[in-house]
Amino acid sequence: MKVIICGAGQVGYGIAERLSQEDNDVSVIDTSASLINVITETLDVRGYVGHGAHPDVLAKAGAEQADMIIAVTLYDEVNIVACEVAHALFSVPTKIARIRAQNYLMPEYADLFSSKNMSIDVTISPEIEVGKMVLRRISFPGATDVVRFADDNIAMVAIECADDCPVINTPLEQLSQLFPDLLATVVGIHRQGRIFVPRSADQLQSGDLAYVICQRDHTRRTLGLFGHEDQEAGRIVIAGAGNIGYYVARRIEEMQPKTRIKIIESDRERALAVSEKLNHAVVLHGSSLEKSILQQADIQDADLIVTLTNNDQANILTAVMAKALGCKSNLVLINSSSLGEVTNSLNIDSLINPRAVTISRVLQHVRKGRIRSVYAVQNGAAEVIEAEALETSPLVGRPFRELDLPQGIRIGAIYRNGAVMRPNGDTKIKAKDRVVLFSTSQSVKDVEQLFRVSIQYF
């Protein structure tokens, strides 16, 4: 596949890295010569210095042969125009634009990005996507990651296994026998820097991060099974009142009106604007790195601090200080993957990487076959994939025990006619079933083949 990426920042770099690793033909455009130099020196991609919306620059980057353009510059208007130009002049089939300004995304303007008005196939709003993820983490304390699939009926939950975890040192097949009515399957394990798909006889160990696919309504019970029975936070402090912080606070006010929220914002005008829009949240003007401001927010009584500023270092330090002052837990927004790695040695409970969220959304449109949703984990070492089975799929019509699945793939759940099923040896996948599975990065091509659209289908 030939892909043009407009924008060589953190998100553009991350997308280029993933796509080039999978042998796609990738060209990257950016106005910054230094960013283009970095990306071409470290990745197997072509770089072009110029404006991503200019026709001559798109032409140099090979737009006439491109299968997809992904516009993720810092400017929404450049992203929109780049997609429009790619459509009008070069007939690029798939056009994806990152849209950050919430003014474009207000409900009353929902038709703005419809196909009849604009030539953009997919819009991605990182702020809203990350905001939704923050809300899921708040709703399920104890989970280090929560993602929804199959119209929100199936969840993927990442759960840390502590020394007192009740299910460690127990073969996975025994867990299914002990809890037959629990629709949950361990599909992946991250252990000592390595991620793998477990076999039925494998056991979880202390220190493991288990990836579990379960029915959404069984998420809390699954967390409890792993020893995580934390109560939802009743007192929350949010550091940063930007788009994400405001979205999270507003949604909590709507969904959990009894939750007490305090927000710390360093920009006075922004603090005033947000305080006027929210009904009950208390907005404090000041730096979350100041002990006095944290104490003014009653951090010692807080159940959770969520750090959502634009500065990774400030987010990390604020979270560490908050716990030192008595806050029970923290959730930290970190853009840099390298900084994410060093937080293991700090007192950080949970991380969110906006770049990973955006890359996952892009990947679902890059994947071949009937792939409906993709979520990358561990910096792309594995993916959780939702795919639709067609009549021609080799998975259809055969009992699970007879399926010879490629290594590195494990099916966690099937969604059929509004019901979630946990597969067993007798289960047969039917056409139009939606299958949620875990795959290591090396096996993603095999997943595409399993759900490919065969010529016989037509």
Short description:
It is built from 14 helices and 22 strands.
- The tally of helices reads 14
Portion in beta strands: 25-35%
Ends distance: 23 Å
The CATH topology of the domain at 2-124 is Rossmann fold
Largest sheet: 6 strands, parallel
Round the mean pLDDT to the nearest integer and report it: 91
Write the layout of secondary structure elements.
Blueprint: E1 2-6, H1 10-21, E2 25-30, H2 33-42, E3 46-49, H3 55-60, E4 68-71, H4 76-90, E5 94-98, E6 122-124, H5 126-139, E7 143-149, E8 154-160, H6 172-178, E9 184-191, E10 194-196, E11 209-215, H7 219-225, E12 235-239, H8 243-255, E13 260-265, H9 268-277, E14 282-285, H10 291-296, E15 304-307, H11 312-324, E16 329-333, H12 337-342, E17 350-352, H13 354-366, E18 371-377, E19 382-388, E20 409-416, E21 419-421, E22 434-440, H14 444-450
Parallel strand pairs: 1-2, 1-4, 2-3, 4-5, 5-6, 12-13, 12-15, 13-14, 15-16, 16-17
Antiparallel strand pairs: 7-8, 8-11, 9-10, 9-11, 18-19, 19-22, 20-21, 20-22
Helix pairs in contact: 1-13, 5-8, 5-13
Protein architecture, described:
- The protein is an alpha/beta fold and 458 residues long.
- Among the domains are: 2-124, NAD(P)-binding Rossmann-like Domain (Rossmann fold), CATH 3.40.50.720; 235-327, Rossmann fold (3-Layer(aba) Sandwich), CATH 3.40.50; 360-457, 2-Layer Sandwich (Alpha-Beta Plaits).
- It has helices spanning 10-21, 33-42, 55-60, 76-90, 126-139, 172-178, 219-225, 243-255, 268-277, 291-296, 312-324, 337-342, 354-366, 444-450, and strands spanning 2-6, 25-30, 46-49, 68-71, 94-98, 122-124, 143-149, 154-160, 184-191, 194-196, 209-215, 235-239, 260-265, 282-285, 304-307, 329-333, 350-352, 371-377, 382-388, 409-416, 419-421, 434-440.
- The longest helix is centred in the N-terminal third of the chain and has 15 residues, at 76-90.
- It is globular and about 55 Å long.
- The mean pLDDT is 91.
